[in-house]
């Protein structure tokens, strides 16, 4: 299962703070009943009119990736897992954490 969550109109301060992103990832993992495997990889990027953070967390069942654009106030979260989870719960956490409004697209494989 892959949940692609797009959040727009986010709180730019929350997006610019790497500790905020770390807390978000940990909260999502707990809420969807997954287990992290290894440390969160997080790195800042900056390219012209795009700037923010990218984060990747391996899970026992696959991975979560997060890309935040602090300039335009956008956040993109992809959760892929062989274990079922509720994508609406993950989307709600993203909106609660970063603000804005969101959509989720779910693919099953």
Give an overview of the whole structure.
It is a single chain. The longest helix has 14 residues, at 18-31. A 6-stranded antiparallel β-sheet has the order 2-3-4-5-1-6. The chain has 109 residues and is of the alpha+beta class. Helices cover 28% and strands 42% of the residues. The protein has one domain (2-107): S-adenosylmethionine decarboxylase (4-Layer Sandwich), CATH 3.60.90.10. The model has no long low-confidence stretch (mean pLDDT 94). It has helices at residues 12-16, 18-31, 87-98; strands at 2-8, 41-47, 50-58, 62-69, 74-81, 101-107. A hairpin with a 2-residue loop joins strand 2 and strand 3. It is globular.
Query: How are the strands ordered across the major sheet?
Result: 2-3-4-5-1-6
How large a portion of the residues is in β-strands, by DSSP E?
35-45%
Measured on Cα atoms, how large is the radius of gyration?
Answer: 13 Å
The N- to C-terminal Cα distance equals 6 Å
Topology pattern, helix = H, strand = E:
EHHEEEEHE
CATH superfamily: S-adenosylmethionine decarboxylase
The top-level CATH class is Alpha Beta
List key phrases describing it.
S-adenosylmethionine decarboxylase, 3 helices, six-stranded antiparallel sheet, 109 residues
State the gist of this model.
With 109 residues, the protein is α+β, with helices and mostly antiparallel strands.
Task: Describe the protein's topology.
Blueprint: E1 2-8, H1 12-16, H2 18-31, E2 41-47, E3 50-58, E4 62-69, E5 74-81, H3 87-98, E6 101-107
Antiparallel strand pairs: 1-5, 1-6, 2-3, 3-4, 4-5
């Amino acid at each position: 299962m892959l949940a692609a969550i797009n959040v727009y109109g986010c709180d730019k301060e929350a997006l610019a703070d790497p500790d905020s992103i770390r807390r978000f990832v940990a909260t999502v993992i707990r809420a969807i009943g997954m287990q992290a495997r290894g440390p969160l990889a997080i790195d800042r990027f900056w390219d012209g009119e795009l700037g923010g953070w990218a984060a990747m967390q391996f899970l026992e069942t696959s991975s979560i990736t997060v890309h935040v654009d602090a300039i335009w106030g956008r956040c993109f979260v992809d959760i892929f897992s062989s274990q079922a989870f509720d994508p609406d719960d993950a989307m709600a956490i993203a909106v609660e954490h970063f603000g804005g409004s969101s959509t989720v697209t779910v693919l099953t494989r």
